[in-house]
Design a protein that fits this description.
mainly alpha; 7 helices; 2 strands; about 70% helix; about 5% strand; globular
């Protein structure tokens, strides 16, 4: 038996695998550290990306698996940006850190439009050429939102937490709709952290920290 097939326990009649628990704990730790403005979230993020790679590989979710190199690249870029800010981007409390900033309304409008367009085209392609997904458009919208949230987080934009909250709510709906029990609980913890981090980063933004 592969380690990715090890069942730890069942919840609501659904098996919870070791790889599920490991990836969930790493993901929660990563966003917890990010919400507290810690650069160490990126080191955990590297492990999280590796865990997701094995998780998707074990379940033959190759579309999600192929996204992990993109997530890894965003993580590397974010690690560099957070620790090597330009002079005008330095935190008022620690010059070695990137300060929290916000998107302009024009940038927000562009981001929202791009998310919907990319998600629609991707969902149409998945529905047309890879049928079988019960919620192709919602799945693709969540994936695009995740990548957007990761990118904004790597740039230390306050708006990233808005994107993460949308991801968390949508994922809760998705998991409940397909009968999952464990993942909605995990997503609810993400949601709580996202709400707290939204407020925490707002305070950092006001202090130019």
């Amino acid at each position: 038996m592969e380690w990715t097939d090890i069942v730890l326990f069942t919840l609501g009649g659904k098996p919870v695998l070791l790889v599920d628990l490991i990836s969930s704990l790493l993901g929660l730790t990563c966003v917890f550290l990010a919400g507290r403005n810690s650069k160490y979230n990126f080191w955990v993020g590297y492990l999280y990306t590796a865990a997701l790679f094995f998780l998707f590989w074990s379940r033959n979710l190759y579309a999600s698996l192929l996204l992990q190199p993109i997530s890894l690249a965003i993580n590397v870029m974010g690690h560099w940006r957070w620790t090597h800010p330009k002079e005008s981007e330095r935190s008022s409390e620690d010059a070695s850190k990137l300060k929290v900033s916000m998107l302009s309304w024009r940038e927000r409008g562009f981001a929202i439009g791009a998310i919907f367009v990319v998600a629609f085209l991707w969902g149409w392609a998945m529905d047309s050429f890879f049928p079988g997904d019960p919620h192709p458009y919602l799945d693709c919208c969540v994936t695009v939102l995740i990548l957007t949230a990761q990118l904004l987080s790597s740039l230390k934009k306050w708006d990233c937490w808005i994107a993460w909250l949308l991801v968390n709510v949508t994922q809760i709906i998705l998991h409940i709709s397909v009968g999952n029990v464990f993942m909605p609980i995990v997503c609810a913890l993400y949601l709580v952290n996202g709400i707290w981090s939204l407020w925490s980063w707002w305070r950092l933004y006001q202090r130019k920290a």
